[in-house]
Amino acid sequence: MTALLLGAVVLLAYSALSGPLSRRGVTSAMAFVLAGVVLGAASGGSLGIALDSAAAEQITELALVFLLFTDAARLDLGVLRRSLGWPGRLLLIGLPLTLLLGLGAGMLLFPDLPLASVFLLSAMLCATDAALGQRVVEDPAVPGPVRQALNVESGLNDGIAVPFFLVSLDISLATLEGNVGSAVAGAITEQIGWGLVAGVVMGGAGGYLLRAARARDWFLSGWHQLFTLAVALGAFSAAGTLGGSVFIAAFVAGMAFRWSSGAGNVETTRFTAEAGSVLAAGTWMIFGSVAVLIALPHITWQVIVYAVLSLTVVRMLPVATAMIGSGARWPTLAFMGWFGPRGLASVVFGLLAFERETPYATTLLTTVVVTVGLSVFAHGLTVMPFVAAYQRWFEAHPGNPRPNPGREPDLPAR
Question: Which overall architecture, per CATH, does domain 28-395 show?
Answer without folding.
Answer: Up-down Bundle (1.20)
